[in-house]
Amino acid sequence: xxxxxxxxxxxxxxxxxxxxxxxxxxxxxxxxxxxxxxxxxxxxxxxxxxxxxxxxxxxxxxxxxxxxxxxxxxxxxxxxxxxxxxxxxxxxxxxxxxxxxxxxxxxxxxxxxxxxxxxxxxxxxxxxxxxxxxxxxxxxxxxxxxxxxxxxxxxxxxxxxxxxxxxxxxxxxxxxxxxxxxxxxxxxxxxxxxxxxxxxxxxxxxxxxxxxxxxxxxxxxxxxxxxxxxxxxxxxxxxxxxxxxxxxxxxxxxxxxxxxxxxxxxxxxxxxxxxxxxxxxxxxxxxxxxxxxxxxxxxxxxxxxxxxxxxxxxxxxxxxxxxxxxxxxxxxxxxxxxxxxxxxxxxxxxxxxxxxxxxxxxxxxxxxxxxxxxxxxxxxxxxxxxxxxxxxxxxxxxxxxxxxxxxxxxxxxxxxxxxxxxxxxxxxxxxxxxxxxxxxxxxxxxxxxxxxxxxxxxxxxxxxxxxxxxxxxxxxxxxxxxxxxxxxxxxxxxxxxxxxxxxxxxxxxxxxxxxxxxxxxxxxxxxxxxxxxxxxxxxxxxxxxxxxxxxxxxxxxxxxxxxxxxxxxxxxxxxxxxxxxxxxxxxxxxxxxxxxxxxxxxxxxxxxxxxxxxxxxxxxxxxxxxxxxxxxxxxxxxxxxxxxxxxxxxxxxxxxxxxxxxxxxxxxxxxxxxxxxxxxxxxxxxxxxxxxxxxxxxxxxxxxxxxxxxxxxxxxxxxxxxxxxxxxxxxxxxxxxxxxxxxxxxxxxx
Length: 750
Hints:
By secondary structure, the chain is mainly alpha-helical. The chain is 69% helix and 3% strand.
């Protein structure tokens, strides 16, 4: 019998293909739809020109991001890089700040962008920090620098810009009638498309993203390929920021906010694979145009007619309907998750090609492999740590624990505060005030310990805190609900966010950092949407009791404690602190002494081996993600009660604090290990560091924005300690080298 072979058909085109044609058609239909609902804006040539101009800056960054994603990496720092470069240029160039020339300012910005790209690349490749952790931390650090350097104020330099027409003409309309940024974008897009599709750089990028190990065996310097991609990404963000500086002749603290979401969504919509190994620059540029157009359609709204009654007479007036505050952010978050889902369920299964083959009556093309993960990392060396702890004795047994560092740091930091300001630190109410700040972080950390131990990550916990608090505040203030209903609805909102995280991560098999990154923006947008971007306050005191001291609660119910030690403690200990410790004790017992806790660590240590052992790893990960969201929701409800108000920025930077707490407390960023004592000690370390940095010592205290930069650096250091000290066991290796190098007699008598 003759054997038959199946042809894989032609190789996919490298520069442009059917996906780009479909995107172009989608763009045309979307623009026509915008012109139909809002002809006053989208029906004019100026609107098309504005769309291309705004697409240019996003598209330039998308060109660099395409190289990163095709490498199977991710760069979450491009938005903050864009904002930081624009702010640095403004401070260098503005006559009321440093008053440098335009050439010196631009050169310094290019050097700064190069440094940021190198730092990202070295962290991810040489130091082996997971890409989403390294670049997320750089995002927060960069955002902290932006806010600190601007002091929350805009910086303008329009008067001085007139002295440098050559540079600032880059952001203006040329003699041909279109903005120069469009021409620069087209040039960058053409060069990027050619390099990725037709040169050795592109071949190395696709090989590294498709299978890094095989690429290394083929002689490709995969580490340099990945560093190079981060350099390109950062330099593209730098160029885009300089073009913005040339156009706006000023900068605001909001530059680049959520741009990382827009750029990643653009590249994925453009056909790049979050699993690596595939992507086209032309598709990414068209994806950028689609995202910018959708954003404009949502922000511009559509014209409506309102009826206004004046002196008893009804008058029809023209108005415009726009979406509430936060709605656009919600949509962009949904767009990111949807775009990533296109990869495994449409592209890799070749749904369109199979449908077209079915219409023509031809055999369907073979589907691509649908397995794989976005980011892989070394497994935690939990067994090694356990062996060291078991073989040690006395003090060495404690020091061998992974959470010993956090416990020691907690004691050292508390004693440092006592030495710096004994008048403040030794005061009992002030001590418990620090404990109140600790409570919110500790609650979030409890749930996140399970997620990280299970091998996942949750970047949305701070936003879920805001969502639950916003929901409770909305029901209390706007709907006039009772406290019990407000608490129930807040918990329901947080649980719903956790359910979406779990379903998308476990059910649709998306990387947890992508699913929770999307929820980060969705929950934050919904929190602002519910309260219309405003701060709410003023509800029944019965709800506020959740954040009050024990003695305040007793007095509310007409109970009075007699003077003494019990009353003194009741006057400083809060209900939320007692609740937090109760939750932590239960969660700690479950994690350390029950089968479910062992399953969590087993799933995080080696998910395949755990599945072979009969553990339902999907259920374990699902419950862990739900628990993290529930803990964040509880923290949000307590936040509203403690402050007696809700602010849409509640929970900001809390995901950074919580991840750092777990890692400092001995948890492994790669999963497989975690203790509740260690995580709580890690949360205490972060809380004490914030308290020390804000402490007024001889008239000096560090501004809040610089504190966030400092915490970001601490997270990077904590991850490096986890990778190189705990897992690679560097100290033991060095000790072994010195032992081998020493003479035999010295080893015997030492």
